[in-house]
Amino acid sequence: MKNRLKVLRAELDWSQAELADRIGVARQTIIALEAGKYAPSLPLAFKLSKIFNKQVEEVFIPDPTD
Amino acid sequence: MNPPSNPTTSASRRYLWQFGLSMVAYMIVVFLSRLLWHTADGPWQTVIALAPMVPAIFVFVSIVRYLLDTDELRRRIAVDSLALAGGATALIAVTYGLLEGGGLPRPSAWWTFAVFMGSWIVSGCFVRRRYQ
Question: Which of A55, A62, B7, B24 is at a distance of 20 to 30 A from B90, taking alpha carbons?
Fold first, then answer.
């Protein structure tokens, strides 16, 4: 699953650590999410979308192979 | 406005403190237990021999609390590596158990613990790399 986390975070000029603190996860988790190495749970996906004031499908893009 | 304190960071700090203190307590109690074991007799000898289990339980509790309080990726890494370590330990135990039938000596039960902890460290490295 792809995502636009890096772009959205850059638009708000937040660091990975800042985003991690805002949603209560480790910076390691943000790094894995942005690299597409980890697909978040639904609650975390909703939490991330909410913090950027976006719909889930505006942040996370399903991979055609998924 | 500062964001609220990160619960994952707090969980990690709490875990390091609780795990560290429990391990120090464990080592002290093991030392005292070995020192006093010969001086006791009857049921007290068993009580003194098992005394290190009290701080060992605190070590276990600190790991469980970390698993419950940390974020989902760290929990997944911990649980995946624990599962792999459990599987590797079972395979090694069965392999050695079969070799025991061929005459190899029966090792101390401590070896199971050592193999499990060693496997946990190795599997943790592999599982973490998957998410980097």
Answer: B24
pLDDT computed for residue A64 by the predictor: 77
Tell me the CATH number of domain A2-54, given options 3.40.350.10, 2.60.120.10, 1.20.1740.10, 1.10.260.40: 1.10.260.40
With beta carbons under 8 A apart, name residues in chain B contacting A29.
8, 71-74
C-beta separation of A20 from B74 below 8 A? no
In order of A22, B63, B65, B124, the CA distances from B17 in angstroms are 24, 11, 12, 20
The model's pTM is: 0.85
A32·B12 Cβ contact <8 A: no
| Of the candidates A1, A12, A17, the residue with the CA atom closest to the CA atom of residue A53 | A12
The predicted-structure confidence for B21-31, as pLDDT tens digits, reads as follows 999 999 999 99
Q: Which of the residues A22, A23, A25, A44 would you substitute to probe the B interface, choosing the one with the greatest number of B C-beta atoms within 10 Å? A: A25
Tell me which H or E stretch contains B42.
none
Asked if A21 lies within 8 A of B9 by C-beta distance, the reply is: yes
